[in-house]
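During the no-cost extension, the postdoctoral fellow (Dr. R.K.) reprocessed legacy sequence entries with the updated structure-token encoder. One reprocessed record is reproduced below for audit purposes.
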Amino acid sequence: MTDYKAEQADEVESLESIFPEELEVVSPSSLILPISVEVGSHNEVCYDVLVNLKITYPETYPDVAPGIEIEGIDGCDEETEKKLHAVLVEEAEQCLGDAMVFSLHARAVEWLEETATAALEYAQKEQERKIAEETEAEIARLTAGTVVTKESFAVWKEAFNAEMKSKEESDTAASKSEKVLTGRQLFEKNKKMVNSEDTLRGKDDVVVDTSVFESLDIGDIDDVLDD
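Re-encoded structure tokens follow.
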């Protein structure tokens, strides 16, 4: 006859040696194991996750699955809790007959890392996509009917790079703490850039806000003109 209580006690003892600081033994049949996943932040939004994995031993565990509860503490909404619970229930079914709390913990960490990382990468790509669309639209608007050559762009780009390098060297500490500005904001903030742009046009030329070309390489101008 299987001594389930002894098997459960042995697992708790093993878990205490693996998670000496984290594991909370509420009772011989009830455990709480925190899970913390750190993936970073984007645009002041943190995508780290903290949950509690709550395990309850039924009388005949591990021949039957334990009770599993997910308590979201930070970065884990109700929908995520439900999905993680379903993942762990499936994992438990595959581990029947063996001590499985450590395996459940490892699977939860793996799933949360994948989910949180995917959310972070999606936010980053969405921002990149929006910036690209806004830049293309601005370029199209400002260059409509205006001739911009490789040579004129190269002259402006060189002057712009020199201006930015001088500014960074003169005030490195301020530049690190200051929020990154767009090309348009830099243009409006730094009046000296007007002189740089004036060298690229004649008296009757159409004025082009060249700050939108800030992040382009010289070769990219052909793609803009072709469109």
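The two ends are 79 Å apart (CA to CA). Helices lie at 4-18, 78-94, 101-143, 150-170, 172-177, 183-189, 192-198, 220-226. The remaining legacy entries will be reprocessed before the final report is submitted.
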